[in-house]
Amino acid sequence: MAEQPMLKFTKIERDMPEKRDAEVRREDFNEIYAEYAAAKAAEQSSRCSQCGVPYCQTHCPLHNNIPDWLRLTAEGRLQEAYEVSQATNTFPEICGRICPQDRLCEGNCVIEQSGHGTVTIGSVEKYITDTAWEKGWVQPIKPAVERTESVGIIGAGPGGLAAADVLRRAGVQVTIYDRYDRAGGLLTYGIPGFKLEKDVVMRRNEQLELGGVTFELNCDVDADIFTSIRAEHDAVIIATGVYKSRDLSLHGSQAQGVEKAIDFLTASNRKSFGDEVPDFDSGRLNASGKRVVVIGGGDTAMDCVRTSIRQGAKSVKCLYRRDRTNMPGSQREVQNAEEEGVVFEWLSAPKGFATDLAVTDADNPADPAGRVTGVMVQKMRLGAPDATGRQAPEVIEGADYVEEADLVIKALGFEPEALPTLWDQPELAVTRWGTIKAAFTSGKTEMDGVYAVGDIVRGASLVVWAIRDGRDCADAILAEFGTAAIAAE
């Protein structure tokens, strides 16, 4: 009788891919986890309990068929495992690297709840698709039939790229417009290479291009261009993401050395491509030899602190106004950062910025010229829950101090740009948060033929949700095209 290939969680312990030593990995921007060997991937997949109600799948925004591709991997049927994975996820190798599995699939694994340690879902997902690329199973899109309808997509981030993939597979003509010189959005310029090596993104861009997607790069859409795009295409998808940085109106906030996270990360990623980056080369967006303080507790803040370490910062500290338990970023990322030498100052919030100018009125929000020398910090405690149910931070009087710094990075999250104003489209309805109003699942806006997906609808969110939105929107557009074709007959 053949051995049962699954349910081995009682015999085999959870085992992540080997992590490179912190002292070694802090010297470069390569990914920190090694690849599974085939035997190890099969072994870890075999720990899946194949439960009747797979909470891993339920809590995945894409509802990936995780138990199915885990079983296929355990049985050594990797090409089938890839095909099942790709059926619901446009970019499984990207999600396997950057999804917060501890909060989604792995965090809801049934055997984790029973104390056996979750299945290493993300690492297996990454292994399956990396193997598919290596073996040549990933091929350019070849639609069975070309259609005459065309869709213009504004934004080459994960939501726009996912929509393009689905539409091209159906034979729709697709053009993507993006302000940057490379496609990928935050995948290319926002997320550091140690979490997502850039060749992983570039090969997907190339696959889409070889499959017939047209990229119009260095295209900063304005009112005239938006009008032209609408006129040229049968439907338009807005997938711009949210790039406007939240700011602090504090004393000294405009001093030299106080920078935005998106500028800092983009400069670092451009250097990894070999681009000329004057603001990096001049030292402005370079942490080398500096005392760095990052303000914020999300994943962007984690990217900034870990990038600073790799750039050779003298010291790196992260200020967050709540405690470790209540921070929004991945706990796995915090652990990685601590291993690499980052110091976290919990329950700490900025009150202002000290500069090299003699200014005594710290309550005056007027920003002096000069260079930052430190962050004026006020210590906090957690009080009663706020409207979201989280304990609200309260200031501890008399506990202020100055944290010395040569470079301060504000990683406070992102807000949507005012697209109705920028594009002179007052009829493009937005919410009170400035995000575009769009129908649930379809992404349809109140403008005829215009859809919106991803962060520009949700606010700053996860890559996996942008992929879900892009796929759902593409399906809705195809349904509309199908209805239109029937009506025309």
TrEMBL record:
Ranges of residues in domain FAD/NAD(P)-binding: 151-470
Keyword field: 4Fe-4S, Iron, Iron-sulfur, Metal-binding, Oxidoreductase
Any coiled-coil regions, as ranges: none
Domain of life: Bacteria
Keyword Lipid biosynthesis: no
Protein name: NAD(P)-dependent oxidoreductase
Domain Dihydroprymidine dehydrogenase: 25-136
NCBIfam families found in the cross-reference section: gltD_gamma_fam
